[in-house]
Specification:
alpha/beta, 8-stranded mixed sheet, hydrolase, hydrolase activity, AB_hydrolase_fold
Length: about 240
């Protein structure tokens, strides 16, 4: 009996070890930011860090804040260039660094944001790909705190009315399951854009080849986000 129990325990421990090693190999094989230096961008006035949060503050104090969840297995700073464009347009942005670059491991990360910037009255949350799905899940459970949801290369997940969500994706996106976008309100397709170019991390496996630059795709995305936020802030 003892021999059987010992053998079973060894087998279980071996299985746990194999699963743990496999997960670490998977998690550490992620997309690194390309041509983005957090050190070069961070300064005392506009971009600061607070633990796992990178806060981009506009020069004029803002009452509108945007919490952003990065895409799965993408280094979070890859989204700083796009968020910097939003900051320059008067929106306070909070970029969340996720455990192992996977938002699914901390979908409630937004809980740690609200108290840090109490002057924000209108909170939006969103993200790219898996990050968008986790942001959507959070928004559906905190609709009293979240004014709007912003999805890039993602779709509504949870009980969120399309009127409270913005969905943006590239026409050449080879990763997004477009059949999940069963709604039409506030949906915008960027012609020539793909899945990866919402961030600066290079090509993504399975994605289409974009026919526009990442700068153009991000500019159009920022324009859609600003229009959406302006409309929601007035409502």
């Amino acid at each position: 009996m003892q021999k059987w129990l010992k053998t079973t325990l060894i087998s279980l421990l071996s299985l746990v070890l194999i699963v743990a090693v496999a997960f670490l190999i998977y998690a550490f094989n992620y997309y690194h930011a390309v041509d983005v230096s957090k050190e070069a961008l961070v300064n005392e006035k506009t971009i600061t860090t607070d633990g796992k949060l990178t806060i981009l503050s506009p020069s004029t104090p803002s009452e509108t804040g945007f919490i952003f969840y990065p895409g799965g297995k993408v280094e979070h700073i890859a989204y700083l260039p796009m968020l910097e464009k939003l900051r320059q347009n008067g929106i306070t942005c909070v970029l969340v660094e996720m455990p192992f670059n996977l938002a699914v491991l901390n979908s409630n990360a937004a809980d740690n944001v609200f108290g840090k910037i109490p002057e924000i009255k209108n909170w939006y949350i969103g993200g790219h790909s898996l990050g968008g799905a986790m942001a959507s899940n959070y928004a559906s459970k905190h609709q009293d705190q979240i004014k709007g949801l912003i999805l890039l290369g993602s779709y509504i997940y949870g009980d969120i009315p399309p009127s409270n969500a913005l969905t943006v994706y590239g026409s050449l996106d080879g990763v997004l399951d477009k059949s999940k976008i069963t709604y039409k309100e506030n949906v915008f397709v960027i012609e020539g854009g793909n899945h990866a170019q919402f961030g600066n991390y290079g090509p993504q496996k399975g994605d289409g080849t974009a026919t526009i630059s990442s700068e153009q795709q991000q500019k159009e995305t920022v324009d859609h986000i600003i229009d959406f936020i302006k409309r929601k802030d007035k409502s």
